[in-house]
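Hi everyone,

Forwarding the result from last night's run.
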Amino acid sequence: MPEQYSQGAHSLLGVFTFALPAGIVALLIFYWVAPHIAFLLPSPHREALQPRIKVPRSLREVLTAGCGIVLGAETHILWDSFTHESASLVERIRLLHAPLFGTRFPVYQELA
């Protein structure tokens, strides 16, 4: 992905303009594909999974799914701040640059 899109997607605005729409598309694909994949599972697993695959129908279920997508995007951005060399927390916390347990890899790379 070009750097300009990556930077935009990793912002508060990007959570709502990129992550939320992409998450909704991924969720729709899941609901489209999941019943077919569940059908391929062996019998005890198929019966356990099929009742749990239901498309959100109420406003509350849709809002819960949207909140889950936003929360997931925000925690992804938070985790990136510990695992990318140019991230603000990695630049500020010198411990993240130290080699982990005698390896040559810094902590921030091992967390990724």
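The radius of gyration is 19 Å.

Cheers,
N.
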